[in-house]
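Fold in tokens:
===
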Amino acid sequence: MAGANLYREYMKICTVWRADPVRSGKCLGEYVRRRVAEEFRQSEQTVVPDAELCSRRLESLRALASDRYAKQYPRVSVSSALGLTRAECAKVIVENLHTAEGAEQEKSLLGKLKERLSFKTDIRESTPAESKK
């Protein structure tokens, strides 16, 4: 595939992969756009040193964007190891990881998960002095 064709195909992938403004700096769509801009600085006139490698990467991105492997290997259960659904996990992550920078959190992510799942938190840990008795 020539450099111009590769550039056009990468641009199609960029339109398919939307950037998530909530996850700035952690979003795969944002990363792909940044890498395409770095690799194809002169847009269609860029000479690609290793076209085969670019083609393989493009095919990998297409597979991810089309959920090829999610369809090929579907999940058996709809919950996570904690018993939360995908939507509940996303909600907990958004609540905890996307707060204003510098703001101190009164509870950790694990603490909020324990609270949400109603785990008992009154389990006592024995101290070395108690274990000698």
Notes: The helical segments are 3-16, 28-39, 51-65, 68-72, 86-97, 109-117, 128-132. Residues 100-104 have pLDDT under 50 and may be disordered. The radius of gyration is 23 Å.
